[in-house]
Amino acid sequence: MALQGALMWICSLAVLSSCAAQDETLQCGYNSLTSNLKEAVECDSWSSEERAGLLLNLRNLRDKLNRLQLRECQGAEPNKCPQAEVPEDGGLLCTTVSDKRYCKPMCNHGYDFSFLRRSRVYEECSEQTGFKWQSQFIGGNKLAVCNKAHIQVSGAASAYFSEDQDCLTTKSNSSLIESAIMGGFMSELRSADVQGEAENSCLLCG
Ligand SMILES: *[C@@H]1O[C@H](CO)[C@@H](O)[C@H](O)[C@H]1NC(C)=O
């Protein structure tokens, strides 16, 4: 049974490279692929070559998914604003309100901002900022860096993902994004008197 699952999984991986839209349910079906991947975590009978082959396929898949993921915010208004960089080991939460783009860098549990930003939860890019990101960090489109740390003190409490809900865990659960993460960001914006409807909201994971 386990072997059958494993074989099915290898098959799924093998066809990923030729993942074509016309056969989406068969080749790219999210549910079957996800359950095969979860099952495969329990397998440890791979040969050395198989392990390397799987790592190779997973690396290709991971690279591709990351590229696609980072494009999810593309085209957000105001489109003169460059895309802010997503911190590694964290995430970037962005939204547009009244033609102003706001992005909030966040760190995963076990990581802390390299730069004190407790009183500065998010950054802005708008006509008023010359369509550049205002940032205390070295500037450019990099808003923050998350470094490995035992304690998390440099940012506001809401700027950290919890231990069991890192960026990807959160992003894969729509109710978590809506309630905890996006809801919190919206109330932070409202309390800074940012009024209006939120558009092009997205969470990108580094
Ligand atoms: C999403 O998160 C909520 C709140 O933590 C949790 O109750 C629910 O089981 C999660 N859903 C999935 C599919 O993991």
Word description of this protein:
This protein is of the alpha+beta class and 206 residues long. The protein folds into two domains: 2-73; 90-205, no CATH class. It is built from six helices and six strands. It has a four-stranded antiparallel sheet. A two-stranded antiparallel ribbon has the order 3-5. Strand 1 (90-97) and strand 2 (100-107) form a beta hairpin. It is globular, with a radius of gyration of 20 Å. Bound molecules: 2-acetamido-2-deoxy-beta-D-glucopyranose (NAG). The site of 2-acetamido-2-deoxy-beta-D-glucopyranose (NAG) has 3 residues, from helix 6. 2-acetamido-2-deoxy-beta-D-glucopyranose binds at residues 173, 175-176. Keywords: Signal.
Query: What count of helical segments does DSSP give?
Result: 6
Radius of gyration, in Å, reads: 20 Å
Helix content: 25-40%
Shape type: globular
How far apart the termini lie comes to: 36 Å
Query: Unreliable stretches, pLDDT < 50, 5 or more residues?
Result: 1-8, 10-20
Class from secondary-structure proportions? alpha+beta
Beta-strand percent range:
15-25%
Report the mean per-residue pLDDT as an integer: 86
Physical arrangement of strands within the biggest beta sheet: 4-2-1-6
Q: Which molecules are bound besides the chains?
A: 2-acetamido-2-deoxy-beta-D-glucopyranose
The sequence of SSEs as H and E is HHHHEEEEEHHE
Largest sheet, in brief, is: 4 strands, antiparallel
How many domains? The number is: 2
- The strand count comes to 6
